[in-house]
């Protein structure tokens, strides 16, 4: 072993380098510190979190938020190697927690161990979205109406479901202000009040793509904010006069609508078992919609006639048979009524 003339000026022990020995050096460094207080701001209504000035929906629980907050408050000297940080969180009240931090590591070849404490303040603040909703702020209304009729319960339900889907998709994608603040069934249809123009447009597009019809937009200037003009937009959705699965009478025959097209209908003609195109002005009558059909039993079936037991009166009513479709006695069928006449669906 080489004889060294280097000694630690503090403890007098041989030092492997000029100046303090490793142990004294490690002891002289303040290698661990914790901020006394950290805070988390969240919205009591929707649990969104505010970081800086930005609100986000994290979906994270209090414990994992606390852990990250405390970790960011722990400062360890960069010369410390293999640092192992342990955090224990104790909830003192609903608004306050205490974190006990203990750290071990190696500093200049010496094992070091230290601890510190941080307090977590859980602050509540109403978020941007909730304050808009509670302040009845909105940027548009989607009005779902139908041409010459009231939208059916199916159409109302479908439109409402599309609106909900659009809201969750946008919210998941981080568009916090694309919310639905109100959805009301009115005498004329469905009104969907929306927090952003983007969600209004998406709902109008989706409803018309799936249920047919078209929409028009009607902006209205409602004021000015920071030199920017503020508009509210009404998305006026007009569903077509006929909808899928409507059963119509046309040229004395019955048919079910399979597709609504811009200038007419594609229908399944019961008498001929075939798809036909029909202009809207050729339709003599809307009999009903297959979704509202009743269940009935076939009493007998012969070459020309089918006897159906009317589920309401229990009397047997005759309906014309069709060469390609002849349900047998005892079989259940779906029916709609055209006055006294019973229409058998396929
Ligand atoms: Zn020393
Ligand atoms: Zn909120």
Quick structural gist:
α4 (153-172) packs across α5. A hairpin with a 2-residue loop joins β6 and β7 (96-107).
What does this structure look like?
- This protein has helices spanning 22-28, 62-73, 128-134, 153-172, 197-211; strands spanning 32-34, 37-42, 49-51, 54-56, 74-76, 81-93, 96-107, 110-124, 140-146, 180-185, 190-194, 214-225, 228-239, 246-250, 253-261, 264-269, 274-278, 285-289, 294-301, 305-309, 316-320, 332-338, 341-344.
- The protein is of the alpha+beta class and 346 residues long.
- The chain folds into 3 domains: 31-124; 136-239; 246-344, no CATH class.
- The strands form 5 sheets. Strands 4-3-2-8-7-6 form a 6-stranded mixed β-sheet.
- The longest helix has 20 residues, at 153-172.
- Residues 8, 10-11, 13, 20-21, 23-24 line the site of one zinc ion (ZN).
- The site of one zinc ion has 8 residues, from helix 1.
Amino-to-carboxy terminus distance: 102 Å
Tally of helical runs:
5
Structural class of the secondary structure composition? Answer: alpha+beta
Average pLDDT:
91
- Output the helix-strand order: HEEEEHEEEEHEHEEHEEEEEEEEEEEE
Query: Strand count, sense and closure of the main sheet?
Result: 6 strands, mixed
Supply Rg. Answer: 37 Å
- The geometry reads as elongated
Low-confidence residue ranges: none
Which bin fits the share of residues in helices?
A: 10-25%
Residues in β-strands, percent? over 45%
Order of strands, widest sheet = 4-3-2-8-7-6
Domain count: 3
- State the total count of DSSP E strands: 23
Described by its quaternary structure, the protein is single chain
Small-molecule binders: zinc ion
């Amino acid at each position: 072993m080489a004889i060294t003339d280097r000694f630690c000026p503090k403890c007098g022990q041989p030092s492997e380098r000029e100046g303090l020995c490793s142990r004294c050096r490690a002891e002289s460094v303040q290698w661990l510190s914790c901020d006394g207080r950290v805070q988390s701001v969240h919205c009591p209504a929707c649990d969104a979190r505010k970081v800086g000035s930005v609100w986000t929906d994290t979906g994270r629980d209090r414990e994992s938020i606390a852990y990250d907050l405390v970790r960011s408050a722990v400062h360890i000297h960069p010369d410390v190697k293999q640092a192992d940080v342990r955090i224990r969180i104790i909830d003192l009240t609903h608004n306050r927690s205490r974190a006990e931090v203990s750290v071990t590591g190696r500093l200049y070849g010496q094992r070091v161990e230290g601890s510190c404490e941080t307090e977590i303040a859980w602050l509540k603040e109403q978020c941007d979205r909730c304050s808009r909703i509670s302040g009845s702020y909105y940027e548009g209304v989607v009005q779902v109406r139908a041409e010459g009729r009231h939208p059916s319960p199916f159409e109302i339900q479908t439109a409402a479901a599309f609106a909900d889907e659009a809201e969750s998709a946008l919210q998941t994608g981080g568009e916090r202000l694309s919310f639905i603040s109100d959805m009301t069934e009115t005498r004329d249809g469905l009104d969907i009040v929306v927090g952003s123009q983007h969600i209004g447009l998406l709902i109008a597009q989706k409803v018309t793509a799936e249920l047919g019809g078209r929409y028009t937009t009607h902006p209205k200037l409602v004021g000015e904010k920071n030199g920017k003009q503020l508009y509210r937009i009404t998305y006026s959705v007009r569903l077509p006069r006929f909808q899928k699965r409507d059963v119509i009478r046309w040229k004395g025959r019955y048919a079910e609508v399979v597709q609504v097209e811009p200038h007419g209908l594609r229908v399944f003609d019961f008498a001929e078992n075939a798809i036909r195109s029909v202009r809207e002005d050729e339709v003599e009558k809307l009999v009903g919609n297959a979704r509202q059909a009743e269940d009935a039993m076939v009493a007998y079936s012969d070459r020309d006639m089918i006897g159906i037991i009317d589920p309401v009166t229990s009397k047997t009513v005759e309906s014309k048979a069709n060469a390609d479709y002849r349900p047998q006695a005892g079989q259940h069928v779906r029916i709609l009524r055209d006055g006294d006449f019973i229409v058998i669906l396929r």
